[in-house]
Amino acid sequence: MLGTLVALAALHNGLSPDLLIFALTYIGLALGSIPYTHLDRSSIALLGAVAVLAFHRLSFQQAMQSVDFSTLVLLGSLMVISAQLRLAGFYAWVVCRVVGIARRPWTLLAMIVFAAAVLSALFANDVVVLIFTPVLIGALRGAKKDPVPYLMALATGSNIGSAATLIGNPQNMLIGQAGELSFWHYTAFIAPLVAGCLVLNVLAVALIYHRRIFVTDHSQQPSLPPEPAVVWSLVGKTLAIMAALLVAMVAGPWLHISRPVAAMAAAGLVLISRKTRPRDLFALVDWNLILLFVGLFIVIADAEQHQLLKPALHALAQAGVNLQHHAPLAGATLVLSNIVSNVPAVLLLKPAIALHATSSWYLLAVVSTFAGNLTLLGSIANLIVAEQSEPLNVRLGYSEYLKVGLPLAIITTLLAVLYIKL
Questions:
Q1: I want to staple 67 with a disulfide (CB 3.0 to 4.6 A). Which of 59, 205, 286, 297 is the partner?
Q2: What predicted TM-score, i.e. pTM, was given to this entire model?
């Protein structure tokens, strides 16, 4: 009843219900929650989609057609594969090995950044930091090292590394499908940029936390927690399936296999197991993120259907801000990604990019990912590191994060613009 009254009032005052739904949804996304409720970004987006349907702004058929199920299938399938590696103990084993063989702070810092980056490029960076954080804190405390600089390296490295592929994070999956991008060409082109930014990542953390990193006795070995039990048969099987999936993604255009179908087949093979139950894998899928996508697809489709974004894009062009050009697009992406988060920002900016404007799609993918390093709230991975650290009496606060995140995000974004322009 309240929603109906609001919509009627909006119509009476000349404000379309489409604009009202769109504005309220994105304001909710920017806030992250609604006061006095437990609503989060996923539920806010879903309620926006419900409003679109309830007020007949789109038919149910139109709403379903607006949902990019190919992106959702790709995302869900990769989550299942990553869940299998998590249950098999692979991620915990990796972090134990990284800390165990790193004898000096420089080595440890670099290995944390690059291990997080490589794993995040292939699997969900959220899962990587979720497993790394508590194990890393325990090992660093055993060696009497300050955990904060290394946690910063973990968060920022996982964000930068996930930009290297079209499956490294949810927004890149969406961009890869929307722009019809080549998996191999994107990775081959962007990998040198990501590698250079990872080196900058290591240097930035080392510079800002120089005293906190290099004041300990370099001869001390980290005191590792008990090495986790690893089901190597499951790890081997899952990594083999993932390798085959990567080959299928690279060779997809020649084999006439789409990325979502290849990912779904790989996830199906992972589910066939005598040691893990499918329900245990499904329980680790981030259904909240999938619902966020569904809700936003419908809200954005309504905005496009009623041309809500066209006046705004025209006004920006009149003001000299042309999103077809790389610098304005990068700036808009950086700002929006830190206001409403990167997935909603990408969905909002997607209509402004022409289908075959490959360099613009590349820039959108890279900058929306690098933007996650700007603030603590810029990336879910950052929040996971902070939340996992809190119960272990390690505080990674907003201002603390800005010391590394702010300059790193700005410098890497500038490098991305220059690199893709060349």
A1: 297
A2: 0.84
